[in-house]
Amino acid sequence: MYWMNDGKEQTKYDEMVAADWEFSKKTEAVFHSYYRYYNDGDLPGWARSRYDLTMNSNEYGYWHRVLNAKGKQEQENRVTEAINAEYKRFKKVA
User: How far apart are CA 63 and CA 56, in angstroms?
Assistant: First the structure.
């Protein structure tokens, strides 16, 4: 999981961050969605109507929708795709 600094393409992400790479707005939006889910509990927009990727949870004492295992994997895949696309652009410039 990228949240634990152990994502599938973590090395590429770390390389770009170390180089002070300016990510595209599209990539930043993917990262922001990921951050908001794991930091603030906000369900990503792409998942709001996907009942196959979400479930109800009472984890914090109130009912709300969260990503299920399949949804969390989709979230990770979206970040991985964004990193790979960004890394391709990064390597062209570097």
Answer: 6
Q: Which residue has the tokens 């196959």?
A: 52
Q: Dump pLDDT digits (tens) for 1-58.
A: 887 888 999 999 999 999 999 999 999 999 999 999 999 989 999 999 999 999 999 9
With both helix axes pointing from N to C terminus, report the angle between 69-93 and 25-35 in degrees, rounded to the nearest 10: 150
Mind listing the pLDDT tens digit for each residue in 59-72?
888 899 999 999 99
Nearest-angstrom CA–CA distance, 30 and 80: 10
Burial of 38 (0-12, 13-18, 19+ CB in 10 A): middle
CB-CB contact of 67 with 37 (8 Å): yes
pTM for the model: 0.88
Contact 26, 82 (CB under 8 A): yes
